[in-house]
Structures are given as structure tokens and as C-alpha cells.
């Protein structure tokens, strides 16, 4: 903001000097200066990073959602849920059944790539410089529905903190795999929580992460 004000002030000062050189056109110059200053202010506001935090997550059965909500509440972040166009039913998620949707997608990466999200566009995406990124672990990896969001968005200039929930598996290389897919952003070491994660544990972790 200070930079913006400095920009605006220098434009106004420059315009003032110009106005001083030509008394006849001083009114027109002053008004042009005001217009230029307003344009500078609005451009700077669009590009300036506000330091805001976003929690992006996908959740099949609500466990990751609960963690995402706790993080957002704790650090005052906005929430963005990734929702497949064709939502997963309980039956779809039955990984013990070889014929279920997830089992078939697991067997066939082309099917995974076909899982479409309702939207991958975050309003004011440029204003977020910290993104918590959450997903359940599916067969040891990040659940694939998150991939489209990562492929569609530019994480340049953002600090990304992966988090996941699982029955027992660790986070493994899932965070690094997503970082490689993204190709941009400063991806941090992630954190795994139990399916029924303890909210106070999640809140303490989120506070620690933001405290650096
Ligand atoms: C398709 C599928 C595969 C899973 N694979 C694993 C796994 O490899 N390791 C594990 O510990 N839990 C696994 N789980 C359990 C989930 O990671 C766990 O229940 C998670 O908390 C679900 O989060 P959600 O409610 O946000 O979808 C799997 C669950 C599903 C539905």
C-alpha cells in the first residue's frame, strides 16, 4: 500500500511540476494528473499482493473438509472446495470393490484424467500468497480429482502447504508430486492428519505454519 501511495504521490508531483511549467493548461494538466493517479492506484491494487490465505481442498467423505475448515477458521483464510462435476457417491468410493468407480479409475489413469471439476477458477487468485492445499490419500497418493485444479492454475509467487487425511498412510511423496505437476510455487513439506483429525492439533499446526 505504501508503494502505491508513493507511486500516486510521485505522479501527482510530476503533474504538479508540469502544471507549473504551463500556467495556461494547468487545469487540464491537473485533471489529467488526477486521472493518471487514479489509474495507477487501480492498477497497483490489482497487482498488489494482499497477503491473503486460501485453503483449497477436495474431500470425498468429509474428513479433509473438516481439517480444511479448521485451518481456515484458525488463520482467517478463505475456503475453496474442489467439486467433481460427477460427485463421488459412497458406492463410487468403495475401494474394496474392484468394480467401483475409484477402483476402475485407479486401474486406468486415463479415467483419472477425465475427472472434471465444476470450476478451477478462484476469484482474486492473484491476491493469495499462501495456499493450504488439502486432499485425501488414495492408494498412497493424493486423490486424483485435485489434479485438474493444479494443472489449471499458476502458483508463481505463492507458498503452498499441502495437507492430507488418511486412514494410516503417511503423506509420502504426494506433496512433491503435486509440486512437480504444478511446476510453479514454493511448495512446503506437507502434513498428514488422521481421518478423524483432532481439531486442536490441526489448529496448532496451522498457527505454527503461518508463524514460520
Ligand atoms: C479410494 C480410496 C483409497 C484410499 N486409500 C488409502 C490409502 O492408501 N491409505 C490410507 O491410509 N487411507 C486410504 N483411504 C482412506 C482415506 O484416505 C481417508 O478415509 C480420508 O480421511 C478420506 O478423506 P475424505 O473424507 O476427505 O475423503 C482411501 C480411501 C478411499 C476412498
Corresponding CATH superfamily of the largest domain: Flavodoxin domain
Uncertain segments of ≥5 residues (pLDDT<50)?
Answer: 1-49
How many helices in DSSP terms? 8
If you consult CATH, what is the topology of the largest domain?
Rossmann fold
Bound molecules: flavin mononucleotide
Helix-strand pattern, N to C?
HHEHEHHEEHEHEEH
State the separation between the terminal residues, measured CA to CA: 23 Å
Write the CATH architecture name of the largest domain.
Answer: 3-Layer(aba) Sandwich
- Which quaternary structure do these chains form? single chain
Assign an overall shape. globular
From the alpha-carbon coordinates, what is the Rg to the nearest angstrom?
23 Å
* Total strands: 7
If you average the pLDDT, what whole number results?
Answer: 84
Largest sheet: 7 strands, mixed
* Helix amount: 40-55%
Amino acid at each position: 500500500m505504501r508503494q502505491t501511495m508513493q507511486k500516486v504521490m510521485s505522479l501527482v508531483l510530476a503533474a504538479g511540476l508540469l502544471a507549473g511549467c504551463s500556467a495556461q493548461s494547468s487545469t487540464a494538466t491537473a485533471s489529467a494528473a488526477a486521472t493518471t493517479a487514479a489509474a495507477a492506484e487501480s492498477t497497483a491494487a490489482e497487482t498488489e499482493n494482499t497477503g491473503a490465505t486460501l485453503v483449497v481442498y477436495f474431500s470425498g467423505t468429509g474428513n479433509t473438509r473438516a481439517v480444511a475448515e479448521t485451518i481456515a477458521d484458525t488463520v482467517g483464510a478463505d475456503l475453496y472446495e474442489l467439486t467433481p462435476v460427477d460427485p463421488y457417491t459412497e458406492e463410487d468410493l468403495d475401494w474394496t470393490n474392484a468394480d467401483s468407480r475409484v477402483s476402475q479409475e485407479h486401474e486406468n489413469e486415463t479415467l483419472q484424467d477425465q475427472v472434471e471439476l465444476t470450476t478451477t477458477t478462484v476469484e482474486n487468485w492473484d491476491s493469495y500468497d499462501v495456499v493450504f492445499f488439502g486432499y485425501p490419500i488414495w492408494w498412497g497418493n493424493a486423490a486424483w480429482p485435485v489434479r485438474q485444479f493444479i494443472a489449471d492454475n499458476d502458483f508463481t509467487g505463492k507458498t503452498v502447504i499441502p495437507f492430507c487425511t488418511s486412514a494410516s498412510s503417511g503423506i509420502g511423496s504426494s506433496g512433491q508430486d503435486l509440486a512437480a505437476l504444478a511446476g510453479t510455487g514454493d511448495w512446503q513439506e506437507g502434513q498428514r492428519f488422521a481421518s478423524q483429525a483432532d481439531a486442536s492439533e490441526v489448529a496448532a499446526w496451522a498457527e505454527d505454519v503461518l508463524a514460520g
